[in-house]
Design a protein that fits this description.
Strand 1 and strand 2 form a beta hairpin. The protein is elongated, with a radius of gyration of 22 Å. The protein is built from 13 helices and two strands; from the N terminus they run E-E-H-H-H-H-H-H-H-H-H-H-H-H-H. A two-stranded antiparallel ribbon has the order 1-2. By secondary structure, it is mainly α.
Amino acid sequence: MLTQPAGAGAPQSTSQHGERSAALNALGEVSPAFLQAYDQLVTASTVLGPLPALDRAFIMIALTATPTNLFAPTLRTHIRQALGLGATREQIVEVFQLVAALGLHSCTFGVPVLFDEADKAGAAIALVSDEERAQMKEEFIRIRGYWGDFWDQVLTLSPAFFAAYLRFSAVPWETAGIAPKIKELIYIAIDSNTTHLYDQGLRVHIRNAMRHGASAAEIMQVMQLASTIGMQTFELGMPLLDEEIHRHAAGR
């Protein structure tokens, strides 16, 4: 697991969990002990878990492509890894489609707050149920396999928007490029991502993933993978730091 003893000079360019970036190698020149600790963390999060390598690559693509993160350097790395493991263009686009649904959290988080505050203000919003809304609810459950009370609130205020979202979110569920269990694990990844931390969605998708056969160990590994994104600090920071050191040394 350990690539070198602390203080033994330049780190190796690979570790047990894969090839290191130039930024991480640069970190190892300054703090080999920290890089060694990171290698141990990533090894525990990847090769020691139950998820196959390709599924891990899909999850890492989701974590770095999510709208709350959007970190291009590591996104490119994980896309390259997925392609090397046999992923197709269509599968990776399917990951993007699943992740794009995160934008809806503005409503699934905000609409219940709106209903609560309206009630406190003495202007309670009554739920509306009619045949059109009932049909959309049935269609959503058929495609997605679950229902949350907040969707009744969204349907009440804007059935047209709900209908549009139903079509938008259904597309990746109508293709078979990625198994339903992995799709739910991708949702768990983006909802447990430290840049998002969306409790309501996380609970929904943990239930869904378990219904599709996911184990506690697989779900735990998703959260472990999400826990490694803090190293993006070094992926971004080390090249900038070294550029500025060179500029300073040159008197510019």
